[in-house]
Amino acid sequence: MMAVNKLMKKLVYIITLLLLITGYSKAQMVIKGKVMASDDGLPLRFVSIQAKETDKKTLTTIDGDFEIEVELGQTLIFKFVGFAEREVQITDDKFYLVELKPYIIQDDFGQSRIHFDAGYDLKNRFVIGKLSYVSDQIGWFSIRTSVVKNLTSQADFLDSKIEASNLIYSYPNISIGTTFRYQNISFQDYSFKNSTFSFQPKLRYFDGNIGFGVSNHDLNSKKSFGILLGANKEIRLGKYHYIPIEVSSTFWGKNVEFNASLKYRVLRYFELGLSYQHYRSFDSLIATVGSSIRLWKRAKNEY
Questions:
Q1: How confident is the model over 76-87, as pLDDT tens digits?
Q2: Which Pfam families match (predicted)?
Q3: Are 202 and 175 in contact (CB under 8 A)?
Q4: Angstrom distance (rounded) from CA 191 to CA 156
């Protein structure tokens, strides 16, 4: 009887030990694998790998290989610069071949960009600089902002615009853009400030420009209200060449302000321009040359 009891105790001890070993082996295991790029199949070196539930981490070797001690059921997070982050759950003690996808680079052609211009006022002989930003399409409209500033000490010239194309939209083919413009010009004995807000209904052959504004001229300290009328048209020459034309007149009481601009664009990223403004005794004829920098958009590549 005592021998049987001893045998039973040994069996219980062995079974308990086996269970503990088996449980530990299931709970803790060394996982091996390799990380490669999904587009060309090349191994990725120095990829960061971390267990999601713990602080255990490692890096892939120069050949893309890795090994890490984890528990069954845990999740490994793979991170590498220029590639989409990936999570892999450990479901078995096997060799894991992990592919990471590079980020998608979306070319925002004709949309999101920063534009730089340098120009010279042929009438007043001063240099100007212009900085513009065009946003991505937001719904059915995009936003364009621009600032023109005199770069010399001969005059104080500031011309800023905020434009939203297709801000007001009505099905099926009627859309209206909006523009807010602020000017502050001080040159020799001339000083002029104005603010205008206008709408650009898109008509069949051109875009109209209708608005109103407030001005202040130092020859007349009182503020005057004005009505703006104009038209915009972009002529397309071939596949990559554009000629935008803008003409407007603002009636400030008995005085008329006239603005006109003609530009030549290639691929919407290189631009030559000529703009003219006349109001009372002030005349400005500015020639510009400019170029845009694309703002590339990085989109996450899903697994």
A1: 999 998 888 999
A2: CarbopepD_reg_2
A3: yes
A4: 9
Q: Where are the domains of the chain?
A: 2-102, 113-298
Average pLDDT for 78-105:
88
Pick the CATH number of 113-298 from 2.40.160.40, 3.40.50.300, 3.40.50.2300, 3.30.70.20: 2.40.160.40
Fold classification of 2-102 is Immunoglobulin-like (2.60.40)
Q: Enter the pTM of the model.
A: 0.59
The angle subtended at Cα 186 by Cα 181 and Cα 191, nearest 5°, is 85
Euclidean distance between the first and the last CA atom of the chain, given in angstroms as a whole number? 64
- For the cut 50, the answer to whether the pLDDT of residue 146 exceeds it is yes
